[in-house]
Amino acid sequence: MDIAKKIAEKGEEALVIAETQTKGKGRLGRFWYSPKGGIWMSLVIKPTFSLKEAYLLTYVAALATALAIERVAGIRVYLKWPNDIIYKENDEEKKLAGILLEVKAEIDKINYAIIGIGINVNNEISSFVPEAISLKEILKKELKRKDIIKELIKNFKDLLEMESIKILNLWKDKSLTLGRKVKIIHPEGEKIGFALNISDDGALLLKTEDTKILKIYSGDCIHLRFSF
């Protein structure tokens, strides 16, 4: 994202693609393994909507990525709150792609947004990161990464034209998180409960074991065994 940030600070929009990343980052600054063969890209945009709607960018990017993978690879994928694309086979869930959003804003104005997207395509990943998988490992063949990128950008533009309620409903239709018992890890501690819904302002609605309904705006989500 370093190059993307320099471009964003100049007030420009761009698509930045890397063959590999030596400083790839995931959520909370974690290292993101980014070898040759994957798609490691950053979209630099200047959104026209308000800061309170910035949350939509993560949902839009996740949907655009999932739909692109499905169209090009011909497989079914799902979404895990807040920003993961998951491949599911039987009861096993493996991470196929992830989203990282960075926004610079002033009061209620977004100066720019950088949307980092990482997709495991033709790289070998499962032996290094057991909870992840690549399209090559699923399909036993390589795909043209440019086809996925082209479809992803098209989807992203189309989704940005939609109303927020439509975007959230599309995300919910592909969600693996809603209706599940989950553990949420965030700066204030851990919360366990049932993922009920996504609120109109993008929060995960969590029903805790003492029946309280919490609005969770960020954090790591772990799917637990039992469904709601």
Question: How would you describe this structure to a colleague?
Answer:
The chain is of the alpha+beta class and 228 residues long. It has 2 domains: 2-173, Bira Bifunctional Protein, Domain 2 (BirA Bifunctional Protein, domain 2); 180-227, Roll (SH3 type barrels), CATH 2.30.30.100. The chain is built from 5 helices and 11 strands. It has a 6-stranded antiparallel β-sheet, with helices on both faces. Strands 10-9-8-7-11 form a 5-stranded antiparallel β-sheet, with no helix packed on it. Strand 8 (189-198) and strand 9 (204-208) form a beta hairpin. Helix 2 (56-73) packs across helix 4 (145-160) and helix 2 (56-73) packs across helix 5 (164-173). The longest helix is centred in the first third of the chain and has 18 residues, at 56-73. The N and C termini lie far apart (38 Å).
Strand content: 35-45%
So, the CATH homologous superfamily of the largest domain? Bira Bifunctional Protein, Domain 2
Question: Which value, in Å, is the CA radius of gyration?
Answer: 17 Å
Instruction: Give the integer mean of the pLDDT values.
Output: 91
Biggest sheet architecture: 6 strands, antiparallel
What is the name of the CATH architecture of the largest domain?
A: 2-Layer Sandwich
User: What top-tier CATH class of the largest domain fits best?
Assistant: Alpha Beta
Q: Kindly report the spatial arrangement of strands forming the biggest sheet.
A: 1-2-6-5-4-3
Spell out the helices and strands N to C.
HEEHEEEEHHHEEEEE
Shape descriptor reads globular
- What is the number of helical segments per DSSP (H or I, 4+ residues)? 5
What is the CA–CA distance across the termini?
38 Å
Number of domains: 2
Q: Helix amount, in percent? A: 25-40%
Given as residue ranges, the uncertain stretches (5+ residues, pLDDT < 50) are none
Coarse structural class: alpha+beta
CATH topology of the largest domain: BirA Bifunctional Protein, domain 2
* β-strand number: 11
